[in-house]
Amino acid sequence: MTKQERATRTRQALIRSAAVVFEQHGYAQARLVLISSGAGVSTGALHFHFENKAAVAEAVVAEASQGLRDMSAAIRRRTDTALQALVDTSHALMDRLRGDPVSRAGFRLSCDGERAAAPDLRMEWHHRVRELLDEAAAAGTLAHGIAREEAAAATVAVTAGFEVLGRHDAEWLSPYRLTGFWQLLLPRLATAATLPLLDPAGTGAAPSTRAHALAAFAVKEADGKAALTAETS
Fold this sequence. Notes:
With 233 residues, the chain is an all-alpha fold. Helices cover 75% and strands 0% of the residues. Helix 1 packs across helix 4 and helix 7 (121-139) packs antiparallel against helix 8. It is elongated, with a radius of gyration of 20 Å. The termini are far apart. Keywords: DNA-binding, Transcription, Transcription regulation. This is TetR family transcriptional regulator. Residues 8-68 form the HTH tetR-type domain.
């Protein structure tokens, strides 16, 4: 392994360790010694890569931002329609928030006011949602009369809400939650011809995961209707 490869690996290990520390302790209480020890290096090695804690946090946010952009671009390249790309990207984002500490910490650092200089990942997400809705409108797959900015705001509000709620209860980041949202919204967004072609569970999901998400939402919906019937009878 070359010196440059070792440096790259060390930097990535520090970013990942920092994400875990920021997530556990918050930015203000995070200590550089915890970040360096989590990466298995000395604080001197940390300072070789980053000037201070703010620079480490900036790297975490930048890594999360780049991951969001790369993910969205890759999904769009393999997806036939912009609306399906929007659904698939939202599912991929929730999957990252479930399993990737860098994505979780990146959103918290950039959106919670702990560091004013950080870019806002929710605004980046909003921009991407609006781009896909604009593309759907241009392709004629968006239903007539849909206000794209309102649709983008609703999508971002729900997904950002899931992100915040998911910090304390991972169920909010589960596939069936997002599938339920898309089952509610897609009939309003898509044209009649486009709607049957869209999968609210996401085309990137494994068949078993998609079936589970759809079945879980159906069970929750049935339970809700039963409870409502019992209350009104």
